[in-house]
Amino acid sequence: NQSLVRLNLYETSIKGGDELDNEDLVIHKETFAEAPELSELTIRSNRLLLDTKIHPEAFIDNPKLTRLYYLSYRRTNGNLPSFASNPQLYYVYMHYNKFSGFLPNFASNPNIYYARFSYNELDGFIPVYKNLTNLRYLFINNNKFSSMNPPENLPKLEYFYAHNNLLSGEIPDLSECPKLRNLLLFNNSFTNYKTGSLAESYYLRYVDLTNNNLSQQSLSQLYF
Question: Do 177 and 202 meet the contact criterion of CB atoms below 8 Å apart?
């Protein structure tokens, strides 16, 4: 596999495991260890091992990985694999699985452009995303996040979806996302809005804050 660059297993019946038929992990650490040139990986199957994890270092030997698409139809659980060894990662789509635990902060992935982790069971806090100058799409809706810190220096972020979570407290200041266009935060438990958090979001086209616990005073402070 020394020359393998792209592997597309889209809408197959692949189940995962390894060549010895070990089914304790759906992707083992050794699965792509001898594919150092791997750049694009697509896996989408409704036959993947049920309630089985990806090894946390499954992609540690793939420094050229730029695009990762993984959809198990909610069959894969456990924590997300580490992306710390993938500095060229540009696109990550891990929608509709059963991953739990924390989100990556992409500190080792400065080129990240598109990130989708929607429809999982990720929880805890949303990390501080900062200095990701290429990030344009961030979809983390339909999880179990409870808190969020304001992002820092996301000059190209346009789409931020965090609806259907457990987020509470103050709607974070998004003033460092000057190109924000679509903001979806509905079906959370936000109680407050900091005046001016969206005042300079001149590109906003769609905002949905319905089904939160915002007071009338907070709502009256909203202006764009």
Answer: no
How many whole angstroms separate alpha carbon 111 and alpha carbon 73?
28
Sign of CA dihedral 13, 19, 23, 28: negative
Angle at 125 between CA 124 and CA 130, to 5 degrees: 150
pLDDT, one tens digit per residue, over 43-60 is 999 999 999 999 999 999
The rounded distance, in Å, linking the Cα atoms of 193 and 93 is 31
Reduce the DSSP state of residue 96 to 3 states and report it: coil
CB 194 within 8 A of CB 217: no
Length of the chain: 224
CA-wise closest residue to 213 among 185, 181, 183, 174? 185
Nearest one of 137, 176, 172 to 154, comparing CA atoms: 176
Q: In whole angstroms, what is the distance from residue 135 CA to residue 139 CA?
A: 11
Q: Which two tokens stand for residue 104?
A: 């990556």
Say if CB 136 and CB 161 are below 8 A apart. Answer: no
Kindly report, residue by residue over 110-149, the tens digit of the pLDDT: 999 999 999 999 999 999 999 999 999 999 999 999 999 8
Residue identified by tokens 């083992």 is: 28
DSSP 188: S
Q: How far apart are CA 49 and CA 128, in angstroms?
A: 33
